[in-house]
Design goal:
429 residues; FAD/NAD(P)-binding domain; 3 domains; seven-stranded mixed sheet; globular; binds flavin-adenine dinucleotide
């Protein structure tokens, strides 16, 4: 059998197949898991629904909205909080220091005023330059270790974009002197399906797609244009779009040059342990999601599925999901039971709920969370990307492109890949 194939049925692969249908072509998706959706799939445990980490949509692209808006949604204000060791602070934290003691605020603001003039090469430089040492040490440097699993001095700066709020002395001073909220978060409204979890937004893409679930690609002979699957099936292709993690793809390809193989072996991502908690009381969360700087707490971030949509929890109950990150650079040393207990300790310490109110406690781990932008990663990735493309394989999505893409960007990436694959036909290699 020959045709147009896609490896992976996350949003990038699904959007590619959707675009192909719009262009009058067919694409078959091969997916390792038993269900489509990838990171955007949601899961149900005993009547409670959870996503794979916090997922809210802030898509603006008309192409994405044309699909997502087919699903009824709830619109939320993008307001989050920060747990700063012993108190809650609004987000972004440096603009909301009002609750801190005066001496602490003075030291933090003095650090900002006296921030060093330096050449910005690493994320650490960027943080020191933006916020000064005192603010950087107290919040973002601590958070970086939790979320990225490496020190900020080992990260580059190209990924930052508009993800981090730059420091503005007027905003900082206002937020230190006044309890009034100044919502300067970079996105102001976020959308989430009324039912079905975040997956609801991609159901239209899944319906009508030709998906072969339970098919894990295990080898790719790009010269012969044949992919082999864990099922034993062999499939010939005319065009192929890959959305599975780039280093995994290279690991299964034939005739890989040594420099490409070496570069691919240096690419790494964070792994995500999700602890999902169901609580026999409504509204336990202080915000839709929040960040944790407290080093005693393993989780970096928490969101409330029942706040995102009441349908995610039984009536009168609420839910939380804790995100704990690790990576090959900082492997997880806690056991699942230790992670669960740490989250329950955190829940009590933050004053959200008591242990005896917990009626559901669930663990799940995801092998790929965020691509890590360690220093020089982009050059090594670009070498790999251009070689794979020269083999006639299009790349799409967060892990196919190996980039920091939100779901809407992954959608657009899949769409572009479909246009390129169909426009180019059988490729050039
Ligand atoms: C914790 C977290 C929170 C996020 N929050 C948001 C948010 O709030 N808003 C937002 O817009 N975006 C968010 N994102 C980003 C969003 O999840 C991604 O952009 C998007 O899901 C990536 O889709 P994808 O199709 O590129 O990859 P994936 O969803 O990973 O799809 C790849 C697919 O390939 C399959 N696969 C892997 N190996 C093989 C193989 N060998 N053979 C066949 N199939 C294989 C996988 O099972 C998977 O289904 C978040 C991401 C994370 C990790």
């Amino acid at each position: 059998m020959s045709g147009n194939i896609v490896l992976g049925a996350g949003i990038a692969g699904l959007a590619a197949a959707w675009r192909a249908r719009e262009l009058g072509a067919a694409m078959t998706l091969y997916e390792a898991a038993q269900t489509a959706g990838g990171l955007l799939d949601s899961f149900e445990v005993e009547g409670w629904r959870f996503d794979n980490g916090v997922h809210l949509s802030f898509a603006t692209e008309p192409e994405v909205r044309a699909v997502f808006d087919l699903t009824p949604y709830i619109e939320h204000d993008a307001v989050s909080l920060n747990w700063d060791r012993e108190r809650w602070l609004r987000h972004p934290v440096q603009n909301n220091m009002f609750p801190l003691p005066a001496a602490e605020k003075t030291a933090l603001i003095a650090g900002l005023v006296e921030r060093p003039e330096l050449e910005v090469r690493t994320y650490r430089d960027w943080l020191l330059y933006q916020y000064g040492e005192a603010i950087a040490e107290r919040w973002p440097l601590e958070y970086t270790r939790k979320y990225w699993t490496v020190d900020a001095q080992d990260l580059g700066i190209d990924w930052i974009g508009n993800r981090m709020r730059r420091a503005d002395i007027r905003e900082v001073l206002f937020g230190a002197m006044s309890p009034e909220p100044t919502n300067t978060y970079y996105i102001s409204k976020m959308r989430y399906p009324v039912r079905g979890g975040y997956r609801g937004f991609i159901e239209p893409l899944i319906e009508g797609a030709d998906i072969r679930a339970g098919h894990r690609a295990v080898s790719v002979d790009w010269r012969q244009r044949v992919v082999r699957f864990s099922t034993g099936d062999e499939v010939s292709y005319d065009t192929m779009i890959n959305t599975i993690p780039l280093p995994a793809l290279v690991g299964m390809m034939t005739d890989v040059p040594a420099d490409v193989r070496d570069a691919a072996a240096t690419l790494f991502a964070t792994r995500l342990d999700l602890i999902s908690v169901g609580i026999a009381r409504p509204d336990v969360s202080p915000s839709l999601w929040f960040y944790i700087y407290d080093p005693d707490i393993l989780a970096a971030r928490v969101y409330s599925p029942s706040w995102k949509a009441p349908a995610n929890a039984p009536e009168g109950h609420s839910s939380l999901q804790f995100e704990i990150y690790s990576s090959p650079r900082a492997p997880q040393t806690a056991t699942v039971e230790e992670m669960k207990q740490n989250c329950l300790d955190a829940m009590e310490k933050m004053g959200l709920a008591r242990r005896d109110e917990v009626v559901l406690l669930h663990h799940k781990s995801l092998p790929y969370g965020n691509v890590v932008f360690d220093t020089g990663m982009e050059a090594r990735r670009d070498l790999v990307v251009s070689w794979v493309r020269s083999c006639g394989i299009e790349l799409a999505g967060r892990f196919g492109e190996w980039a920091y893409l939100w779901s809407n960007q992954s959608f657009m990436s899949g769409r572009r890949a479909a246009e390129a694959a169909l426009g180019r036909g059988a490729g050039t290699a």
